[in-house]
Amino acid sequence: MSSVNLHERLQCVQKEIKEAEQRFGRQPGSVRLLAVSKTRTAADILALAQLGVADFGENQVQEAQAKIEQLRGHPLTWHFIGPIQSNKTRQIAENFDWVHSVERSKIAGRLHAARPPDLPPLNICIQVNIDAEPSKSGIDPGELPQLAERLLPLTRLKLRGLMALPAPTDDFNAQRRAFMKLRLLQEQLSDSGCQVDTLSMGMTNDMQAAIAEGATIVRIGTALFGPRMR
Ligand SMILES: *Cc1c(COP(=O)(O)O)cnc(C)c1O
Asked: Would you call 165 exposed, middle or buried from its count of C-beta atoms within 10 A (0-12, 13-18, 19+)?
């Protein structure tokens, strides 16, 4: 990919975030850009890092680990955003700074146990199945308080907030309604005494609606790197 293109795409995304912050009364700079680099090469990541992006998201452990190793020495923050298999928790706990896709206490326990003591606690978002789709990842909203409570004693994890991946739709108002549900769940969590500060929501096609509803991290792949081949 040409770096000129990448630069233009990044500027476009940054502009869209900034304008949405203004339009929806958000604090300037309150939305963090997470570049979703799944399927992209280490060279693509490095090119974006050299343009100032520090946060990268991956959804497959094997693929991610190779890139993380190639890019050691660069001050990057790695976010795991995919489904988590039990047998991959050690690799995730050792290589990532954030995990956005925690949905079971068993997985949380394994991440806690495997987090190396010389690293800071692993930042965690609980993934919520906001549309109650049977095939979708994420816990049901009703189970959220219990899972959040189970995370609290796990000192090698730091619960930061919630993540959702709503059913795709081009209808802006429908997008907003889904993200509003996540925001309200976050507010309930906060009212119950959890100190949460992160709403990980919004991708290329729905980042405006997500920012309108309070996203603090948007996870953007296509708008930065172009269409994915797989
Ligand atoms: C792939 C992916 C994204 C990025 O999606 P785009 O539409 O390419 O911006 C965001 N979040 C998750 C969990 C993903 O798997």
From this structure: buried
74 with 49: CB under 8 angstroms?
yes
Going by CA atoms, what residue is nearest to atom 6 of ligand 1?
221
**Six-digit token pair at 74?**
């660069």
Q: Which of 54, 63, 73, 32 is nearest to 218 (CA)?
A: 32
3-class SS of residue 1: coil
Per-residue confidence (pLDDT) for residue 210, from 0 to 100: 98
Tell whether pTM > 0.90.
yes
Q: Distances in Å between the alpha carbon of 24 and those of 10, 43, 97, 137, 174?
A: 21, 35, 29, 29, 17
Ligand 1 neighbours, Cβ below 6 Å, are: 36, 38, 59, 81, 165, 203-205, 219-223
